[in-house]
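If I may wish for something, please walk me through the protein I am sending here so I can picture the backbone:
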Amino acid sequence: MFPSHEREVILALFQANDWFDLYALHEELLLSPAQIASAVMRLQADGLCEADGMKAKLNNDGVRWVLKNRREIFLRSGRKWSVSPLVDHPKIDIGEPYMPRLKSIDKDFFRKLD
């Protein structure tokens, strides 16, 4: 699985087709330098990219790897969504107003926020 910051770095490097200024990625996506560095180091360790100071690029193996694994990289979030067992309510129509069960609301909820 790939954390979202790694996906963003991989996508930027893939779209650049040449050396990419990593500081521009930091400015555009507000990724921390540590996130960018860890993503680039992981790609370097796998032999998929080259780095030179604040610039990096995918090598030919990296481009082929992204194309081959694009579904795994970009389409799977790694999260498994499920219905909470605590939520037990009947389905309502889209236009029908929602009213929570007042008996099930914790009366001290807003007092606990202080």
Observations:
- The chain has four helices and three strands.
